[in-house]
């Protein structure tokens, strides 16, 4: 274990998931604060790459601040930002019907998208507390009229303080089933997300490691992008559930606290 930790610490770039790695809901995970302090003191390049699309980078920074971690706003990259970049490259200045929170709405506004609930180019869905039957019904009919269906990430569920909550793939499933259309998901493990992370770090694949708690997004994303992977057991995956996958992480830690 000691040798593995030394190998991880030699890396120059760190792509770090947030839910289940740094915090659970509003609870900071053990060692997270010391880990971020070490990253800064060791002059490591790091980016928090999250599949969550609910919060803006400003809100994420404020959340970490409340938990006692102070970082710059530019270290955050969310699936909402990746989705906005993708749509802007596909159809500049397009329009969308959005089921999601401020993080997603702001990201699309910032790339010049307009909100449209009559004849949008896209129906875009992220995690949402305002999910309702009426919105799903409306989304179904817009997709049937020709709007393309986009999901910010393919997570089925995510960790919260008292268990798990349904995430984007679970929420978008009724629209897929009712329309017969498959959504295109932008977040991890989509290689787009990993490329954006590497570009933000300005690091090579070889000098970078991805640290996450999910086999089906974080770890497979790293493997497919040829970036070393580190699974932490502080989130959604245990040693037993890890064994069910055909691929395995390069390193396994109890949590990021192990590194410091």
List the topology elements.
Layout: H1 2-9, E1 13-16, E2 23-24, E3 27-28, H2 32-41, E4 45-50, H3 57-66, E5 76-78, H4 79-90, E6 95-99, H5 102-110, E7 114-115, E8 122-125, H6 133-144, E9 148-151, E10 157-160, E11 163-166, H7 168-179, E12 184-185, H8 191-201, E13 208-212, H9 215-224, E14 228-232, H10 239-242, E15 251-253
Parallel strand pairs: 1-4, 1-13, 4-5, 6-7, 6-8, 8-9, 9-12, 13-14, 14-15
Antiparallel strand pairs: 2-3, 10-11
Helix pairs in contact: 4-5, 6-7
Notes on the structure:
- This protein is of the alpha/beta class and 260 residues long.
- It has two domains: 2-51 and 188-259, Rossmann fold (3-Layer(aba) Sandwich), CATH 3.40.50; 80-185, HAD superfamily/HAD-like (Rossmann fold, 3-Layer(aba) Sandwich).
- Helices cover 38% and strands 21% of the residues.
- It contains ten helices and 15 strands.
- A six-stranded parallel β-sheet has the order 5-4-1-13-14-15, sandwiched between helices.
- The model has no long low-confidence stretch (mean pLDDT 95).
